[in-house]
Amino acid sequence: MCKIFGYSIKLTILLKGSTIMANNTQKLVYGSSIFRKLMSSLNTKFQFRLLSFYNDKKIIDLIKIVKKQVDFAFYPIEAYHVYSIAKSQSKMDGEMAEVGVFQGGSSKIICEVKNGKELHLFDTFEGLPKVSEKDTHFGKSYWKTGEFSNTSIESVMDYLSSYKNNFFYKGKFPDTSDPIKNKKFSFVHLDVDLFQSTIDCLEFFYPRMINGGVILTHDYHTDGVKQAFNEFCKDKKIPQIQLLGSQCTITKIE
Length: 254
Ligand SMILES: C[S@@+](CC[C@H](N)C(=O)[O-])C[C@H]1O[C@@H](n2cnc3c(N)ncnc32)[C@H](O)[C@@H]1O
Prior knowledge:
Elements: H1 2-31, H2 33-54, H3 57-69, H4 76-89, E1 95-99, H5 105-113, E2 119-123, E3 136-137, E4 140-141, H6 153-159, E5 166-170, E6 185-190, H7 195-205, E7 209-217, H8 223-236, E8 241-242, E9 248-251
Parallel strand pairs: 1-2, 1-6, 2-5, 6-7
Antiparallel strand pairs: 3-4, 7-9, 8-9
Helix pairs in contact: 1-2, 3-5, 4-5, 7-8
The chain binds S-adenosylmethionine (SAM).
């Protein structure tokens, strides 16, 4: 009886939270840090439940482990999208790359399913490059130059050392892109937060994607990332598929 009562309270909180979220998400979530933490925690719990309803336990355990090991700010469903798309693309020709590695959270998810493919990992490992006036978040400035500097190439190399065929590049992309200029890619994960970094990545990688290759980005809800995709995709008439959460994906069709 007590258990049922407990579940019903949890369910009520979850449902109330979801309704409030749906009604006025941005204002509530970004207006108060306490509310943000509460909603983030409820959202994470709810998304784990949803994932366990539809998917095998392996991915849920993997996301939980990564969240314990490193600072990894992806919601479970966003991490699942990285896992699911990388897994499916691992069966195609071409290598994989990620720009925006930070402490290696999303890189580890890709490593788990890359099926021995080369994974080329790029980051300044010194935090975000210069933030511009385009890099707003729901219309307000948000990112800070140098943010995410609490990492190092050595610590990420160590974290991913059990996986084969990983290649690490320290510095500002695309300055570091020369070693991969003749490669083709089936999957590229972008998590660079900024307009200039995103457009530079799209210009470099899109022509190097195989037919059917997928580029997935995080933080598409931010103004800079969305503007970079819109500008890049518009003239080429590339469809952008926005996913649940903050991600968007494009596919190269020749
Ligand atoms: C939000 S963090 C990435 C988070 C990571 N994917 C994870 O799983 O936790 C964004 C990263 O993008 C990197 N970054 C942004 N623009 C870059 C560029 N042009 N070249 C290299 N790294 C860049 C920053 O250094 C930062 O570590």
